[in-house]
Amino acid sequence: MEKYTADYLTIALPKGKLFSLSACLFEKVGITAEHMSEKSRKLVISNHDLKVQFIITKTSDVPTYVEYGAADIGIIGKDVLLESGQDVYELLDLGFGKCRLMMAVPREEKRAHLMDYAHTRVATKYPNIAEQFFARQGMQMEYIKLNGSIELGPIVGLSESIVDIVETGTTLVENDLEEIAHIMDVSARLIVNRVSFKLKFDRIYKIVNDLKQVLESGEI
Ligand code: PRP
Fold first, then answer.
1. Tell me, what CATH number does 143's domain have?
2. Residues 92 and 191 in one domain
3. Is 4 within a domain?
4. Closest atom of ligand 1 relative to the 170 alpha carbon
5. Same domain membership, residue 103 and residue 93
6. pTM of this structure
7. Using a 6 Å cutoff on CB, does residue 64 contact ligand 1?
8. What number does the ligand 1 atom closest to the CA of 149 have?
9. How far is CA 22 from CA 30, 35, 53, 126, 138, in A?
10. What is the pLDDT of residues 24-64, one digit of tens each?
11. How far is the C-alpha of 98 from the C-alpha of 163, rounded, in Å?
12. Ligand 1 mean position, distance from CA 162 (Å)
């Protein structure tokens, strides 16, 4: 078993859509480890020469590991970060993992105005962001938290609308849903634990600068 080592830099990477580009980005700045795979059953992957360890976690857990300092650095989508409300430094917009958070409704039952959906049910993975958005519109809604396949909500009568991310738009089209409100643009962010940023400043500062250069060169 890998031992937790305080002088190591611990990097949390999310499983799923952001994993391979995140691993690739760190590789470009010379930070890598053998057998990096999101399918790995090994939960901590270390490079003892570099004194670095990667932890590969469920996407929604990345901000938690970073806030509590179990990871010094993490990569996460802006949507998950904002929803979590976790207190971390957000140091870089990495520019990949681009999508948008929006409200969508069944095309056949589209109402004339956004306000016509006030007091209806919204299925979403993002109840906090959704609530802030609707509050800004002066709308009170009922939020139904789902963890995946959000588009199913209005199809089976669980909700009148959804708030979810759209990347290519295929899922909306295939389920006869139409976007009616844009809530925010989303992309991957580099986050850092507040204490680590002070205690491991030189290492983290160098990594942030190296990552910036890779991003500016357009290699990712
Ligand atoms: C996300 C999102 C949409 C879909 C949008 O789901 O929740 O369902 O991708 O992508 P598209 O616009 O390219 O069709 P994900 O694949 O992460 O799975 P999930 O439904 O289980 O959350």
1. 3.40.190.10
2. yes
3. no
4. 14
5. no
6. 0.93
7. no
8. 20
9. 13, 15, 14, 23, 38
10. 999 999 999 988 888 878 889 999 999 999 999 999 999 99
11. 17
12. 12
Q: Is 198 a domain residue?
A: yes
Compute, in angstroms, the gap from residue 165 CA to the centroid of ligand 1: 7
C-alpha–C-alpha distance, residues 217 and 29, integer Å: 12
- Residues 72 and 134 grouped into a single domain: no
Residue nearest to atom 22 of ligand 1 (CA): 148
Neighbours of 214 (CB within 10 A): 18
Q: Is residue 34 part of a domain?
A: yes
Same domain, 56 and 84: yes
Q: Is the CB of 166 under 6 A from ligand 1?
A: yes
Distance, in Å, from the CA atom of 98 to the CA atom of 17, rounded to the nearest integer, reads 11
Q: How far apart are CA 186 and CA 99, in angstroms?
A: 5
The whole domain housing 110 covers: 99-186
Atom number of ligand 1 nearest to Cα 166 = 12
Residue that the structure tokens 């295939």 belong to: 174
What pLDDT does 4 receive? Answer: 55
Asked whether residue 60 is assigned to any structural domain, the reply reads yes
pLDDT, tens digit, 9 for 90 and up, residues 179-206: 999 999 999 999 999 999 999 999 999 9
218 lines ligand 1 (CB under 6 A): no
Q: State the helix-helix crossing angle for 19-28 and 201-216, rounded to 10 degrees.
A: 100
Q: What is the pLDDT of residues 124-174, one digit of tens each?
A: 999 999 999 999 999 999 999 999 999 999 999 999 999 999 999 999 999
Q: How many domains does the chain have?
A: 2
